[in-house]
Write a structure and sequence with these properties.
15 helices, 10 strands, alpha/beta, two-stranded antiparallel sheet, 13% strand, 349 residues
Length: 349
């Protein structure tokens, strides 16, 4: 009988590899496995980060403004091409870098087109000129915005998709303080193009909830910082694990350029200066300049010595997995939640 069992087992066809059962407008348009985007992050969005997320089945993104000019971006794009054969994109954030610093946006767009990038995440101020240039080159544009009216403008300008960025987000949440619970529900009613949820995202239950409100996926920033492959100092990653959702704060409010950051000693000092000298960028610039947190991220690891973007999702970060482990975990949990929700639907009498 043992021989018979052995023969029967051998005769069984091998199971086919399990594929992600969730398909959305995002996965279909970009040819990615999971509806998960790694958003642009200053001093984090290098080739190593983008390639790791893309290889994990999501969409990795290089941050253009982190690179030293258009040719620096070209070099990083080419480096990423050697690290993954999966789709990856570039983030172009249309915001000032600091006093006296000019950005060659035309040069950045030119490099993106010449290097054959197929998807770009835009963010920040009026994207009309950039969107037109990118669309003329056949590039898929995802515009990140913090208000539904801005999303409607991006739709009118030709964006293929919008990333709806709630007040929970790291970085610049705008000046209207509206969270995703409202923004996503309204976007689902008002937009005719697909959208994804951004801001505070990091779990599969959130992906399932976002999809229930009409989203085609999620954009994660801070959560990807706390991964093994993230090119930041281990102290930064551990700080994200140790913190909870109460440990972010808002700076630059007096300049109407609000930024959500980790509540470090330096961030608290910036708030104190703003309270006494509102609107004075010169008074706080030495504390908030990008090179200061570049050194912390890449060299010292002294988290308290800088101001860096960080979202309220830190309350959901409990470990430092690989990008592959994180993406699979999010996808598996989302699938489980979506399937379990079906049990709440009963047949009509």
């Amino acid at each position: 009988s043992k021989a018979t069992v052995s023969v029967l087992n051998c005769a069984r066809p091998r199971p086919t590899p399990r594929t992600m059962p969730i398909q959305t407008a995002l996965t279909k348009a970009l040819g990615i496995q999971y509806p998960i985007v790694q958003g642009g992050m200053h001093w984090v969005g290098f080739a190593e980060m983008a390639a790791a997320v893309s290889n994990a089945g999501g969409l990795g993104i290089i941050t253009a403004l982190t690179m030293p000019g258009p040719e620096g971006l070209r070099k990083e794009i080419r480096k990423c091409k050697t690290m993954t054969d999966k789709p990856f994109g570039v983030n172009v954030t249309l915001l000032p870098l600091g006093p006296g610093k000019k950005v060659d946006f035309a040069g950045i767009v030119k490099v993106i087109i010449e290097e054959g990038i197929k998807v770009v995440e835009t963010a920040g101020r009026n994207p009309e000129k950039v969107i037109k240039s990118l669309k003329a080159a056949g590039i898929y544009v995802i515009h990140k915005c913090v208000a539904v009216r801005h999303a409607l403008t991006a739709q009118r300008l030709g964006a293929d998709m919008v990333s709806v960025d709630g007040f929970e987000c790291a970085g610049h949440p705008g000046e209207e303080d509206v969270g995703n619970w409202i923004l996503l529900a309204k976007a689902g009613k008002k937009l005719t193009i697909p959208f994804i949820a951004s801001g505070g995202c990091g779990t599969g239950s959130q992906l399932a909830a976002a999809m229930a409100m009409g989203a085609s996926g999620i954009n994660c920033g801070t959560r990807f910082m706390a991964t093994k492959e993230a090119p930041v100092h281990d102290n930064v990653k551990q700080a994200l694990v140790n913190a909870d959702e109460r440990q972010t704060t808002l700076v630059l409010r007096s300049l109407k350029n609000t930024e959500r950051v980790l509540k470090t000693k330096t961030a608290v000092k910036v708030r104190e200066i703003e309270a006494v000298q509102p609107g004075d960028i010169g008074a706080i610039y030495p504390l908030v300049k990008g090179d200061r947190y570049r050194k912390v991220f890449q060299e010292t690891g002294d988290v308290e010595d800088c101001v860096f973007s960080c979202g309220q999702v830190i309350g959901l970060i409990e470990d430092i997995p690989s990008c592959a482990e994180l993406c699979k975990r999010i996808a598996d949990e989302a699938e489980e939640r979506l399937r379990s929700l079906q049990s709440h639907i009963v047949a009509k009498l």
